Every structure is written in C-alpha cells, then in structure tokens.
Amino acid sequence: MDPARADEVFVAALEARPGSRNRQRLRVLGAFVAELAWGLLPHPSVSDLVVRRRDSGVEVLRLEAGDPHTSGDLLRQAREAMGRLSPAAFEYQWGLDRP
After folding, report:
1. Cα separation of 90 and 21, whole Å?
2. What percentage of the chain's residues is helix, strand, coil (to nearest 5)?
3. pLDDT at 12 (0 to 100)
4. C-beta of residue 33 within 8 angstroms of C-beta of residue 15
5. What are phi and psi of 38, to 5 degrees?
6. Per-residue b or e along 9-34, where b marks 16 or more CB atoms closer than 10 Å to that residue's CB
7. What is the pLDDT of residue 83?
8. 4, 39, 66, 70 - which has most CB atoms within 10 Å?
9. Parallel, antiparallel, or unpaired for β 59-64 and 10-16?
10. How many angstroms separate the CA atoms of 96 and 88, rounded?
11. Number of domains making up the chain
C-alpha cells in the first residue's frame, strides 16, 4: 500500500550547514554581528532545511534556510506541505530528486 501523505515517507529538519567547525563558528559570529547592527547587515544562513527519507535516512533535499530568524518558517512550510500532499506531489512541488 502506498503512503497517503508525504510525511509518512519524508522527514524535514534544520541542520547545521556543511563545513568545518571554524566555518560554522564564523557563520554564528556573523549572525551575531548582524543582529548587533540592528539588521542593517544581512544575516548569514547558519542552517539548512534538510529533507530525508524516513526508511533509509538518505538526504533528498538540502536548501539554505536563510536568516536565522525566519529559518523556522521554511521548516514549518515544508512540514505543512508534507502533511497535506502525497509523496509524489511533495517531490514535484519541492523539486526532490527521485532515487
């Protein structure tokens, strides 16, 4: 039986962006400095939205989550779409690569 909803097949989460520990520290420092500048400087993205298959854990989508203040919105959008779309419709709408 095929799954009715995409959230039965996929799981979405915010994960640290790839890179060395020093690179991650620089991103966090950049976000802190941008916050101190009252938003006059663009915030660096410190995390990615990652969608994985539930059965295998294979990553099927990675998107830069953007501003740390709004990255949760992207995660919420992905999870809401998974809750209402079929797996095929979610793959099409979000541009997932099929295995």
Report:
1. 33
2. 40, 20, 40
3. 96
4. no
5. 55, 35
6. bbbbebeebeeeeeeeeebeebbeeb
7. 96
8. 66
9. unpaired
10. 9
11. 1
Task: Please give the residue range of the domain that contains residue 73.
Answer: 6-94
| Residues contacting residue 82 through CB under 8 Å, at least 6 positions apart | 5, 6, 7, 10, 12, 90
Greater confidence, 30 or 53?
A: 53
* Angle at CA of residue 49, ends 90 and 91, nearest 5°: 15
Decide if 99 is inside a domain.
no
Stated pTM of the model: 0.72
Residue 1 within a domain: no
Token match 């953007």: residue?
A: 66
| Helix or strand run (H / E) with residue 47 | strand 47-53
What is the token pair recorded at 19? 């890179």
Q: How far apart, in whole angstroms, are the C-alpha atoms of residue 24 and residue 19?
A: 7
Closest C-alpha among 51, 70, 49, 47 to residue 60: 51
Within 13 Å of residue 68, how many CA atoms lie on the same side as its CB?
16
